[in-house]
Amino acid sequence: QVQLVESGGGSVQAGGSLKLSCGASGHTDRSYCMGWFRQAPGKEREGVASIYTGAGYSYFADSVKGRFTISQDNAKNTLYLQMNSLKPEDTAMYYCAAAPPDEFCPLTVSEYNYWGQGTQVTVSS
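Structure (tokenized):
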């Protein structure tokens, strides 16, 4: 069991930056795929970025490549999503999620079985 709590969402103007955090507790003494997902109103939840905690391999959706970075602080059991050059289309509820270890950490919702409650990101034009 892993419990996840996101924070750091907010409102920002286009071109701005935000850094999301996801604190993990529970069975954190093992490797996982950790991912960030987002869901805008009326749209399906989609993968944004993932990282294999065992080796640090990271993956990104095409829509955020070059703008978002994912990182982890193992000592703090915390996952981060640094979002730069934000666009109005990045507006969504952002979720942190965990999945069994897989070095390719797919950005597929169904692969993840632990989820946080979400944090809202709103980007205005």
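The two ends are 40 Å apart (CA to CA). The mean pLDDT is 94.
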